[in-house]
Fold these 4 entries.
Entry 1:
Amino acid sequence: MKIGVCGWVLAFGCMLAVSCDSRSADLLDTVRQRGELVVLTTNLPTTWYIDRDDNIAGPEYDMTRAFAKSIGVDTRYEVFDSTQEVMQALRENKGDIAAAGMTITAERAAEFEFGPAYQEVSEHLVCHRKVKNINTAADMNSVKIVIPASTSYIDTLNQNYPDIEWSVDESAQTSELLQKIANREIDCTVLDSSIFDNERRYYPELDSKFTLAKGSELAWMYRKGNPNLTQAIKKWFAQYRSSGELAHMLEKYYGHIDSFDYVDVHKYLRRIKKRLPKYEAMFRDAAKQNGLSWTMLAAQSYQESHWDPKAKSPTGVRGIMMLTLPVAKSLGVTSRLDAKQNIYAGAKHQAKMKKIIGEATPEPERTWMALAAYNVGRGHFSDAQKLARELGNDPTRWLDMKEVLPLLSKKEYYKKLKHGYARGNEPVIYVTRIREYHQLLEQKLQKQPDGQTGKQDG
């Protein structure tokens, strides 16, 4: 089923505006005359989605908006359930470009034009963790493999694994196949690494058993015979890459999913249901009072203490937000073991870090930098920003600061800094894990009809 995102334009008018394109004119001219770029996409975390605050987000959304702005037009999105539907809509002239994590294949390139590749992925055979290990291509015949229709995975299997048996499900989407794997209804499917890295956090039972292809490239796709559009996309993309915006976009959506701990994720999902409800109201209120996201505050607390109000570290920080004694005293905390006092003080301290980071740093990077400062200390973080400037990095961008912070533990750098040595790797790991916990919590809440996390422990 297709989801129309036309806003103020009626569905019939939306289709008419596109279908009336003159095939003799370059599509770029038509788009400019119309004043909007019609983007065909899918509803996935790796393409286009609506978050819990009803904001549209996603890698394809960010990139197509940036391109549309460069040519002076708005964007309109037609959202489909599958790449099969996206490709058919492009054939029927219902949109201008397909931006849906489209893999470049010879078969597709014979029919459509591709823009520059913006991401490289691998293709994995993804199965339930309990499926036996698959060490060779021949071993794949021992499992039941089901593939979504009209995907690049079909080309990969046909061309590279002609002796392997598999089937196509014409109606099931990727998410449905993953649910079937989790329920042990089927053994395996095939996924891009970008999708797998996202989805295995929601389905911890998934496991990559075999890599079918490496170096597959993703790009936008559009109808052939539009050289002006091709030139405009290439020109914009070259600037988007050279300015660092492509790297920042990839960091925004994928920078927190480089590592995966099955046991940790499984435990976290259980604690969202059983442990978080006891403190949820406190997180919500403390975050609201300090202009923070309550789910981000809760994720930060989990990284600090696993929501244990009596937590204590070897360095002496204590409580559910793991406050140092000086910070606790400065914020009027009389007992760091009091969960409510600890949460409200932690929220105030985090808000202070965000204020110090300043509005020159855009969100969500401002939040990530404030988290890093909370962890390593404002003085050390300030040193890292100073060092970033000296090294030609941008101290207002998290991608740059991720590279610089670890240098605080190297003598050649820290001996010249005001606050000296710091374990610079720790804030990078700290922020990465909080972002992962936050994403998991947000996804969990989206699946709850009342937006609540679960029942309290008895």
Entry 2:
Amino acid sequence: MLKIYCDGACSGNPGPGAWGYVVFENGVQIAHAYGIETDTTNNRMELVATIKALEGFNDCNIIVDSRYVKDGITNWIIKWKKNGWKTASGKVKNVDLWEQLDELCASRNIKWDWEKGHANNTHDCVDILVRSAVLK
């Protein structure tokens, strides 16, 4: 199964941001991609990174450093959809992206993992990609 490390970042929140992913097969990097946005939030970039990865790959292990993404897609989304995309405090933020991610997940075999960011681990490879893109 492919391992795909996804990350997003912003310079300011909101502010200019970037998303990126790095794909590994049997421990060897085989692909990467990134993009930038001029006015966004960190959470949006975390979601976009994951969406972009899943647009290109089917059966994979998605590794994120964002509890927002991991817990949102594996746990919270069930209740959000049941409640019409509302929480006790109001409307779920980034519904447009959560709906895209949910649709992509429906047709794929995905294993979800969280890995601490900025911890001298494999996830740092995508963090470096994204942070350099933000500076562009």
Entry 3:
Amino acid sequence: MLKVVIDTNVLVSALLKPDSVPDIILSLVLSGEIILCLSEPIATEYEEVLKRERFRKLNRKKVKALLSRLKSQAQWVKPKTGLEVNLVDPEDSKFLECAMEAGSDFLITGNVKHFPKKHKDRRVISPAQFLSNIVKAFNS
């Protein structure tokens, strides 16, 4: 089964845009078709970002329930820090660190330009690229 790390921007897009590619990916996680890999720093970022004023239109109870479900289904890891990679935003290192420690297949992000395309067999991929890879895999 595929294991993924999902950047916060993908989670936010899924919540703001029903039936979007990020929403489909979130549905795959919730249905157990793919495994979400999480670390405490990522879970904390998810919560902090979704509490921001600009996302107040989201149903707080549904967001809380979703985060709880994601946490309970996730494969939790405690990543080692200090990857030897220079990222545009050093705060993004938590996603790559989690992907490395979990042995995930993909890091899915809307900001692919902020990451290397690949880091030690961990592919960094956009939501659309990820979905395209899934479709290709099922059709072959």
Entry 4:
Amino acid sequence: MKRLVLVLALAVAAVQWPLWMGAGGRLKVLALERELAERQAANDQLRERNRALGFEIASLRQGSEAIEERARADLHMMRPDETFFQWRPSGEPALARGE
């Protein structure tokens, strides 16, 4: 009787092993589901970034105001009749010329 129980236990273990540890086993499926969730989150972030860039491209194509705003913010460009003032929070060191 003990041998029969042992043989049956080994048979159950032999059947269960591929289900849990095999190439398409449950542990592999769980790892793949985790990886899929991470990639979907990364894709969502990239989709949002692409959407924002699309809006920016459309804005740049539609009018010169967006181009002017971009030039002022990124390149610090000014019109000839403008005076540029830059405010720094107190305690922040002044930048030397050329930096």
